[in-house]
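Predict structure. Chain length: 410.
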Amino acid sequence: MTTYDSDLLQMLSERGYVHQQTDAAGLDALAVRQTVPGYIGFDATAPSLHVGSLVQIMMLRRLQQTGHKPIVLMGGATTRIGDPTGRDESRKMLSDETIDENVASIRKVFEKLITFGDGPTDAVMVDNNDWLGSIGYIEMLREVGTHFTVNRMLSFDSVKLRLDREQPMTFLEFNYMILQGYDFRHLAQAMGARLQMGGSDQWGNIVNGIELGRRMDGTELYGLTTPLLTTADGKKMGKTASGAVWLNEDQLPAYDFWQFWRNTDDRDVGRFLKLFTDLPLDEIARLEALEGSEINHAKIVLADEVTRLVRGDDAAASARSTAEQTFAGDGRGEDLPTLAVPSEGIRVGAALTQLGFTKSNGEAKRKIIEGAVKLDDTVIEDAGHLIALEAGSEARLSLGKKRHAILTAG
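Prediction complete.
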């Protein structure tokens, strides 16, 4: 492993965040000499980011922890266009009101993980609609467009993928990389930003911004990307059979968030502890070395630590208590998802689907046939089983050993 002089790059390297750098030696020297303002961009396509974005948020946390200044760039303008990177089709257009609401909702998570304020290392959140929304089309073409060649733009994977698959790519989306490059140049001028970080799929966009800053202003800018984050079984981080693992409480209950981390593959525990917690590396090494059933202790530590950071101490404690009650007690922890059963009852398959445990009643039927569904401690074998509860009563519905919910009389 490469050893760096700056605390910033040493920490990022030791904890597994570094995939590519445009000029490691230059950034390392800069981070020793001065406070480095660095940014990552986030589009506001939903009211919450999901776990796949958490590694980027943690990078901003690491930036602040090592004495540098995080800039959270919300893509109020670029969300109106849509990043074509890694996509086979155009993104659905959102209204201005929806985008503004999403930005306000997303900020809540950042406020838990980094400190905002007016100090030299305090984080700031900015919206690129504040400058891109007012720039004139002719001005953009004259000042910025001359520094981008169509030949080079066609060579980027985000464009080639769509063209190779004969998927339409709008002129609007084709402009995304120009606008993102202009963001870096603007933040360098307005806020002294010298570093842009992002996922490995953003490498081309980051390099574009560095080149634009050099050509227009002669500014030395730097880029750093993280590895593509997948689980040990090759799945994209943040996706489950039940959908995205959202960071905001409004989109996913704390217990489900905690349980996602508790269910981590044994092979991923050490890597995730480095990326998503503040535990010392020697403690992580000890936890990572646990074998057999003892690795479950490390998974509980991982779930506790990540939930505490993202959702708060109370949410972590409550989720842990619910898990203990569910698996060792009466199985009715307070944080379990709930479903009100109407007076006429509900079919067990429909209940599983409404809870998000299965994607369809057909999938629910297959799970029932497999013997994976229990009502309290009784295995349900009839796919048409009607759940009916007396007033004031409740029951526990389980899918396998890890998905549980409380059914209440509606």
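Summary: Residues 96-113 form the longest helix (18 residues).
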